[in-house]
Amino acid sequence: MSTTDRIGQFFTWLCGGALALNLLLVVGLLLLIGMHGLAYFWQSGVAELQLRGGGRLLGEIHGVEEVPADEAAWEGEQRMRMKIGNRDLYGLDFRWVRESEVEAVTYPEDVVLLERMEWGNFYGRMLELRQAGEVVSRGADSVWSAFPAVHASKMEERAEIEALEAGPIGDVNYQIERLRLDQRRADLEGGADAADRARFGRSETELNQRYESLATQLFAMRDRLADQQVVMEAATGERKAIVVGEIVRCLRPNAMGAIDSLLLYFSRIWEFVSGSPRESNTEGGIFPAIFGTVMMVFLMSFAVVPFGVLAALYLREYAKEGPVVRAVRIAVNNLAGVPSIVFGVFGLGFFVYLIGGTIDQIFYPEALPTPTYGTGGILWASLTLALLTVPVVIVAAEEGLAAVPRIVREGSLALGATKFETIWRVVLPAAAPGILTGMILAMARAAGEVAPLMIVGMVKLAPSLPIDHHFPFVHLERKFMHLGFHVYDVGFQSPNVEASQPLVFATALLLVAVVVAMNLVAVVVRNRVRRGYSTSAV
User: Fold this and answer.
1) Beta bridge partner(s), residue 60
2) Cα separation of 179 and 187, whole Å?
3) Which of 434, 431, 455, 315 is nearest to 375 (CA)?
4) Cα 50 from Cα 57, distance rounded (Å)
5) Which of 343, 369, 453, 524 sits CB 3.0–4.6 Å from 388 for a disulfide?
6) What CATH number corresponds to the domain at position 375?
7) What digits encode the pLDDT tens for the residues 489-538?
């Protein structure tokens, strides 16, 4: 074997080893995220610690480690990280406990875990069940037996309240706002006549009466929701009366079997995927973030593909090679290296302030100074990311067009087709796999971008989805939530970072799953197209 062959073989093995290492790192990262993310939904046992000083602690043990070296007095000891919950009593969710402080560890079956709408978990024992201040049940077993029926009733009442708020009350508020805008539009157009003012007055009176009636009904339902309470005793002996309607789940973790644990596990996963967030995004579900991410990526794809393909067609099929075309290609390649935050600033100035502000002045003057399109929204975020990813689509589309043999074009032209017909019916279908490859890369990048979106419409919590039953049904001017920003917000901006840390892994795992799912759909479409055009080199 010659020296050149040995050097070539060495670099071949080097490239293969680098690829294997990269794949190993990717798989390792996914396994790390997956283990921590999926473990977030599993319910572990609740330990009761008898301390040597006579105190007690209730909570879940979340790991054991050596005492840090800076605590010299306890060096070499082990300490446990316990999730003690009861934030409204203790002010914190976690506590470190040295093993030397612990006299005994038990797992009593009568310990109850309450998942609440606010203040996180509560660990303790049931004492009483009250209705309107009167005790209806006393004793741990008695209260535990009576609680499921009471809780199911209160969950139905809560669902009715949420339906009333999102349905009739939301519709009335929407109609009141539309009426206000109609009145202001009439004033801007020269003032309403007597008939219009009378009509506006009647409509306003009717809507206000409907709102007052619905508000009275809502307040009565909320009072009824809060009329039943369960009295809990914490490990320290403190008692806390908790409204049954504010409890999401009631569990006895130490008495649960394998089937019950699995059912709980999958119900929590479903809640996480389909529910709305609560407690500053640190609990509950993240469906609005999933919806916002997917909708933004698809809007971006619909915007970037036509522009990218048209640019690639002009550069490859129509433009003559020269200094201008070379400068354009250099500019496109340089755009791919511009920091994403720069695109966000451009989107804010061009899309939001210039285009959105102009739309508001022409079509929505009655809403000013409150902007409609002159503020961040999912439309402007999608267009900003389209600009960010258009270089990827242009380059991939050009490569796909270049892969179509010249003889195919010449054959089409020889049969009498025009250049446009040749491009539309022959070249573009054959280059479709390359174009779809660019779209897949653009979707993958857009789904993970956060920095530009923070400027042009993404928010921590969006009160309503961009789609509802009010005309025009799709509201592209609304702000939205995003999985990438949710990871950042929960991991770094949460008031209780220790409690929300597992949620970061779960959200990151879901973001990876959403990106993979969208890309798989695009890959399947690309492969179907590719099978029809064996000339594609993509």
Assistant:
1) 83
2) 12
3) 455
4) 7
5) 343
6) 1.10.3720.10
7) 887 777 667 677 788 888 888 888 888 888 888 888 777 777 765 544 43
